[in-house]
Amino acid sequence: MGETRSDVDRRIGRRALLVGGAAATAGTAVLARAELSRLWWRMPGVEKPRTPGAVDFRGARWVAASPANYRRADRPADYPIDRVVVHVTQGSFAGAVKVFQDPAHQAAAHYIVRGDGGITQMIRELDVAFHAGNRKYNERSVGIEHEGFVERASSFTDAMYASSARLTAAICRRYGIPVDRTHVIGHVEVPGADHTDPGPYWDWGRYIRLVHRASTAPTASSAGSASSAGS
Question: What is the DSSP secondary structure assignment for residue 28, as one 8-state letter?
Fold first, then answer.
């Protein structure tokens, strides 16, 4: 976990956009088409409808993170999603929920997986969670926290591996993400990250095998209808 205020949206920089008016000021230049496409939905009356409490993965429990710990977006329309980032909480599930609901924390992941395999979603996948310590990676990834400690092998239970693998398989299938170690990575592998999770006891070989297995299993599915309805 961990993110600084530097991740807060500074996309426009010194340029100013007057939302809801007729003018967009950018010095002597106009905003790039791609940039406008990422901002259009913020105008009054055009934000994508959302269903309160909707989840993107069937069986997940919804508990909302503080809005200060993520940025509302319209992924993958404005930012393509091509990564899953694996985290470890360095604490309890309850502790992770508490800090993700704390606006002063300035960080949160999309999901938390408990030791018993239970999954809680705290941020919708269409939104940019401040979880990776790297703005570009935040914009293009889904972050999954795992209850436990990097220095305790016992944190990573069979139930946790199986449940997390089903979740990652569903995310990869939804966005066409290859199931490999280039696209399913640890927090430690994010450029500029100062974290070590998931640590030396996380069994990557086992995890990727489970994700592959879940990807081809007929029971491995996400709540696509919920995602569409809430998007």
Answer: B
